[in-house]
Design brief:
The chain has 6 helices and no strands. By secondary structure, it is mainly α. It has a single domain, classed as Four Helix Bundle (Hemerythrin (Met), subunit A) (Up-down Bundle).
Length: 166
């Protein structure tokens, strides 16, 4: 796989590199600042895909790097936020846990990582707003966590089934 560092791939790398900084911030910053930092980092996920498609900078490397960056950021962030603030946040890892076998199957089969389905995009969006909603103390955050967990688990199951069928 040829490595090409373009703006979308750089955004994915920034997401990976910002993950340990965000984890460190969890122990030192108030929740409202963490919410905004999380949101900014999450927005890089939307930006890298948008830019890759619209600037015609989609690469094989980026197709693998982007979901890896997403998993590194989301799983690490949610685990540490759960441990520090509220273990109920673990519920947001439903998709990540269910989709992980599918991701591994794609890599073992040396198949390109599956295109993200609309349900996968919805799950990512829900995760990206649920964590800040929780950190900001919005009343609807609990309901949003449950919705995100259900949609995310369905997304993960769909992804894994797709991987098995290849």
């Amino acid at each position: 796989m040829k490595f090409k560092l373009n703006i979308p791939n750089l955004l994915s790398l920034i997401r990976i590199l910002s993950t340990p900084l965000f984890i460190l911030a969890i122990f030192h910053l108030p929740k409202h600042l963490l919410a905004w930092i999380f949101l900014v980092i999450a927005i890089t996920d939307f930006l890298d895909g948008y830019m890759a498609r619209n600037l015609k900078q989609v690469t094989k490397f980026g197709k693998v790097l982007d979901p890896v960056a997403d998993r590194i950021f989301m799983i690490s962030s949610v685990i540490f936020l759960s441990l520090v603030f509220d273990t109920r946040l673990f519920i947001l890892l439903g998709r990540e846990l269910v989709a992980l076998p599918g991701f591994i199957i794609f890599l073992i089969k040396k198949a390109s990582v599956a295109r993200i389905s609309i349900i996968g995009k919805i799950t990512t969006f829900l995760q990206s707003i649920t964590v800040p909603a929780f950190l900001l103390g919005f009343d609807f955050a609990g309901l949003l966590m449950i919705i995100t967990a259900i949609v995310g688990s369905f997304s993960g199951i769909k992804y894994t089934i797709k991987a098995i069928r290849i």
